């Protein structure tokens, strides 16, 4: 890196930190009353501890002066202060638990919603394990920072100031001695800060990798068993764990070095204060009582400095985690338009569309029209771009050139956008069921559907017979990814889920590929008779399906054309 680049990099990092901090403060706003209360209690607790030191001095001075009667009052006061400070600490802990939970959930809900609102293609680039790590451990680090670290930092600063001035009141030079530890702590935290940010990001990245692996492995146990991959998977887990341990160890080692350096300077500061106090007593400059205040306050002036330095890694972890969450929040959001058309007799015009996931185009200047009410079969080799065309019609990505327009017979039209999904029913390729009952899965198509509508959809998707035979019928619980039913049965449930929407535009992407020919034909008959009759795109590899379609489109050479 050249010098100029280094400077630019440095400023960018500073800007990042400022941006992250602003982002955190934005989320903190609703919790300001609770946080203020929390800090108020903490500061009160600090004042009480300083008060305790002063009461201690009084006790010793009264005791050495032989003043027993006043001594009892002071002891009573001492006990009262101890009780009050305990009560304060309980209350402030409870508030901080509530803030931590509420703040964590608030941020998590927001990020979760943001993930749902991000354009599909952009969010699909992240592994679900990675997203989970960001939603759980990164959000946790930020909430911990808000509920614990920041209030602690503020309390420590107040503690430092109050103790310093109290000590300075008794002996200014001693107060300065006690601050001796500050520059060492500061140097340690700056050095530590730079290193720690890098190490924290590394730790979170390895955590993401580790979680992603576990999640994927657990979801594919069948494959691991089939290919006898148990030992291999365990080894991979161990390797990922080792990688994580390596970075966690490095991060903690950095923390330890800094703590050791600060601990040492702390001890030195204490020895200096102790010796200084002893000399003053020998010279009869101070009382024994003042000596105890010295020792207690020196302790209390150094402790916040060292604790502050120890907060630095936590603050850095918080900022690094905030950065990882912000990265997700900065992904492009789906854009809704207010332009809605009456969802009846919908047609679609694809005009000069070019799109590629990378620089390599999948569709190049492709055009086609799907007229209202038409059933169109889309055929073509595997990997040619059939599903990609559907993704563009569904507006799952914005990075497309050309135009896709929906229109109706009243002459209204709108561009492909997330709004258009309101009148599209889509059966994607592969198993797309959720865990839960069959009923719950189908009702995802239309949450307020009646029992009659439900049965109608089940009948038309040729799912009625097998559902009847299940012990709990439509209320049978199926597992993750449709475990408990067959692939073809899952496909029929997915078709019922789409049909129940009664959408004017229906897309079936190899939706019947696992069915035997006669069942497939029953399903297609059901779809053709479905009322109101939708416009339908049917992606298929099977010729037998074509008899149910009005026309056949092929994708060849990145373009669409009528099959001859
Ligand atoms: N998310 C993605 N990122 C990058 N490339 C992709 C992605 N999805 C698909 N592709 C690529 O785009 C091309 C078209 O894929 P698409 O899924 O549209 O094919 P398809 O015609 O539906 O195939 P199939 O009949 O096998 O389902 C393929 O070369 C594929 O490798
Ligand atoms: Mg496909």
Keywords:
binds magnesium ion; 6-stranded mixed sheet; Rossmann fold; 2 domains; alpha/beta; ABC transporter transmembrane region fold; 564 residues; 4-stranded antiparallel sheet; binds adenosine-5'-triphosphate
Written account of the structure:
The protein has 564 residues and is of the alpha/beta class. The protein has 2 domains: 21-329, ABC transporter type 1, transmembrane domain (ABC transporter transmembrane region fold, Up-down Bundle), CATH 1.20.1560; 347-562, P-loop containing nucleotide triphosphate hydrolases (Rossmann fold, 3-Layer(aba) Sandwich), CATH 3.40.50. The chain is 64% helix and 11% strand. The chain is built from 16 helices and 12 strands. The chain has helices at residues 3-28, 32-64, 68-117, 120-123, 128-170, 172-178, 181-219, 221-226, 230-282, 288-329, 386-393, 438-443, 451-460, 464-469, 487-499, 517-529, and strands at 347-355, 363-370, 375-379, 401-407, 413-415, 424-427, 436-437, 477-478, 505-509, 535-539, 551-556, 559-562. The strands form 3 sheets. Strands 6-9-10-3-11-12 form a 6-stranded mixed β-sheet, with helices on both faces. It has a 4-stranded antiparallel β-sheet with strand order 2-1-4-5, covered by helices on one side. It has a two-stranded antiparallel sheet with strand order 7-8. Strand 9 (505-509), helix 16 and strand 10 form a beta-alpha-beta unit. The longest helix has 53 residues, at 230-282. The protein is elongated, with a radius of gyration of 34 Å. The protein binds adenosine-5'-triphosphate and magnesium ion. Adenosine-5'-triphosphate binds at residues 357, 362, 380, 382-388, 429.
């Amino acid at each position: 890196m050249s010098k100029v680049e280094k400077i630019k990099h440095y400023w960018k990092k500073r800007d990042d930190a400022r941006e992250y901090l602003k982002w955190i403060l934005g989320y903190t706003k609703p919790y300001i009353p609770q946080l203020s209360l929390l800090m108020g209690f903490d500061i009160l607790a600090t004042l009480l501890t300083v008060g305790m030191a002063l009461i201690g001095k009084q006790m010793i001075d009264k005791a050495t002066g032989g003043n027993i009667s006043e001594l009892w009052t002071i002891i009573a006061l001492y006990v009262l202060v101890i009780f009050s400070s305990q009560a304060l600490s309980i209350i402030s802990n409870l508030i901080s638990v509530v803030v931590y939970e509420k703040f964590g959930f608030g941020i998590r809900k927001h990020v979760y919603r943001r993930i749902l609102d991000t354009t599909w293609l952009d969010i699909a680039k992240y592994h679900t394990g990675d997203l989970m790590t960001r939603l759980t451990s990164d959000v946790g680090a930020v909430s911990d920072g808000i509920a614990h670290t920041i209030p602690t930092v503020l309390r420590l600063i107040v503690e430092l100031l109050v103790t310093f001035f109290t000590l300075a009141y008794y002996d200014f030079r001693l107060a300065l001695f006690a601050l001796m530890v500050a520059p060492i702590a500061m140097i340690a935290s700056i050095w530590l800060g730079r290193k720690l940010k890098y190490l924290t990001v590394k730790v979170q990245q390895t955590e993401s990798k580790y979680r992603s692996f576990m999640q994927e492995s657990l979801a594919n146990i069948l494959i691991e068993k089939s290919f006898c991959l148990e030992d291999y998977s365990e080894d991979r887990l161990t390797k990922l764990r080792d990688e994580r341990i390596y970075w966690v160890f490095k991060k903690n080692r950095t923390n330890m070095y800094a703590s050791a350096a600060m601990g040492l300077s702390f001890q030195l500061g204490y020895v200096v204060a102790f010796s200084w106090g002893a000399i003053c007593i020998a010279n009869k400059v101070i009382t024994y009582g003042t000596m105890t205040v010295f020792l207690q306050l020196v302790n209390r002036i150094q402790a916040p400095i060292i604790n502050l330095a120890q907060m630095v890694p936590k603050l850095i972890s918080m900022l690094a985690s905030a950065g990882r969450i912000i990265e997700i929040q900065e992904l492009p959001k789906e854009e809704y338009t207010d332009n809605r058309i009456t969802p009846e007799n919908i047609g679609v015009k694809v005009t000069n569309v070019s799109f590629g996931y990378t620089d390599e185009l999948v569709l190049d200047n492709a055009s086609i029209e799907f007229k209202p009410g038409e059933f169109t079969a889309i055929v073509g080799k595997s990997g040619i771009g059939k599903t990609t065309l559907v993704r563009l019609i569904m507006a799952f990505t914005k990075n497309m050139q050309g135009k896709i327009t929906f229109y109706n017979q009243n002459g209204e039209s709108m561009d492909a956008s997330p709004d258009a999904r309101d009148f599209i029913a889509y059966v994607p390729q592969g198993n797309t069921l959720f865990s839960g009952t069959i009923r719950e899965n189908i009702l995802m198509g239309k949450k307020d559907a009646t029992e009659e509508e439900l049965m109608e959809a089940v009948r038309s998707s040729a799912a009625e017979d097998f559902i009847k035979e299940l012990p709990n019928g439509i209320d049978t619980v199926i597992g993750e990814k449709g475990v408990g039913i067959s692939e073809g049965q899952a496909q029929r449930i997915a078709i019922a889920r789409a049909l129940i929407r009664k959408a004017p535009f229906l897309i079936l992407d190899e939706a019947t590929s696992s069915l035997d020919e006669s069942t497939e034909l029953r399903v297609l008959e059901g779809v053709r008779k479905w009322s109101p009759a939708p416009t339908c795109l049917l992606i298929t590899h099977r010729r037998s399906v074509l008899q149910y379609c009005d026309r056949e489109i092929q994708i060849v050479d990145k373009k669409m054309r009528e099959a001859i």
